[in-house]
Design goal:
With 328 residues, the chain is mainly beta. It has helices spanning 2-9, 186-190; strands at residues 23-26, 36-45, 50-59, 68-77, 84-90, 103-108, 111-119, 126-133, 145-149, 156-167, 170-180, 201-202, 205-210, 217-223, 234-243, 246-254, 264-270, 276-278, 294-302, 305-313, 319-327. InterPro entries: Glyco_hydro_beta-prop_sf (IPR023296).
């Protein structure tokens, strides 16, 4: 243990960013609380020198078919800053009440996958499916197949927000999952289709592994929630950045259900992509000047910079998607 502690203490972390200095990339549809543009996944395709950005739009509850996470989109850009939408899907195409953060990856030459996170209409619990296509503009909702479904795991009340890494022998998928509190009733957790907004479950990060990127085996809990303190409600891994001798990890934490929409980003490290150590214990590492959300950070190493895309809470209460670049 002392050896591991020494490694973590001497670990060189990737340079981070100032959330206030980020550039607004995607704005919400309205300038009021409850309107969001965010939950990004960024992919740079070296073959066509193009950035592909997945993001989610959300409206407040009470907007009928256009409430909560009602639509997700993929946009393309040559400079990583000015994006044009090339694909979208509305939640009604999934017969779902909400879609959330998903993972966009290039699995092979001219072969892309979208691991999409949405509320399962069968039981109102979050699940993850995968869609394959020859281009990020060609994903079809009807082509999706199951990856992780909460009902397959006793005591699990939802699985969402995947982050997928290609490794030598396959794929690692990290995801946040809802573990019901002792004594909580299932009917109380799923009446609104969002167990994370009930206060009846905690949300650590799990790991599933796969040799083909289609069939995953859940292996571990890699970022547990804290026993007490600011991260006792959620610990959601959002990005892994190769840097130095290992990897710098960013994750979203929250103290309770009151911060369900205003999580803040913290640090962890890993050397093997399986064992993680939290660096931030006392409080978040990244938040706005008003102590609001900096969440769903995704980092891309490109052109001697780390390109950080993240969801940011503005003064008016709306969330926008921002970019901050840090030179290596």
């Amino acid at each position: 243990m002392n050896h591991v502690k020494s490694e973590v203490e001497n670990f060189q972390l990737a340079p981070l960013f100032d959330p206030e200095k980020g550039k607004s990339i995607i704005r919400p549809t309205n300038n009021e609380e409850g309107y969001w543009a965010g939950a990004p996944t960024i992919l740079y395709d070296e073959k066509d020198s193009t950035f592909y950005l997945y993001y989610r739009l959300r409206n407040p509850r009470g907007h009928g078919e256009d409430e909560r996470g009602y639509e997700v989109r993929i946009a393309s850009s040559k400079d990583g800053e000015d994006f044009t939408d090339i694909w979208s899907i509305h939640k009604k195409e999934l017969n779902s009440s909400s879609i959330e953060r998903s993972a966009l990856i290039k699995a092979a030459d001219s072969h892309y996958r979208l691991y999409i996170s949405y509320v399962d209409p069968a039981d109102n619990r979050w699940r993850i499916d995968v869609i394959e296509a020859a281009s990020p503009s060609e994903f079809k909702a009807g082509d999706r197949q199951k990856v992780l479904q909460a009902s397959d795991y006793p005591g699990i009340e939802g699985i969402k927000d995947p982050y997928v890494v290609k490794v030598d022998n396959g794929y690692h998928m990290y995801f946040v999952y809802a573990k019901g509190n002792e004594g909580a009733e299932v009917k109380d957790m799923h009446g609104t289709g969002d167990v994370h907004n009930t206060g009846l479950a905690v949300a650590p990060t799990g790991l599933a592994v796969s040799s083909d990127g289609l069939h995953f085996e859940w292996t571990d809990n890699v970022l547990p929630v804290g026993h007490s303190g600011w991260d006792q409600y959620q610990s959601r891994l959002t990005t892994i950045i190769p840097y130095g001798a290992g990897y710098t990890v960013l994750w979203d934490g929250s103290i309770g259900v009151e911060q369900n929409y205003e999580e803040k980003s913290a640090l962890a490290v890993t050397f093997d992509l399986k064992t993680f150590a939290k660096v931030t214990y006392e409080g978040p590492h990244l938040e706005t000047s008003l102590q609001k959300a900096v969440r769903y950070v995704d980092g891309l190493v490109h052109d001697n910079h780390i390109w950080y895309y993240y969801e940011y809470t503005r003064e008016d209460g709306a969330h926008e998607l921002r970019l901050a670049k840090v030179e290596l």
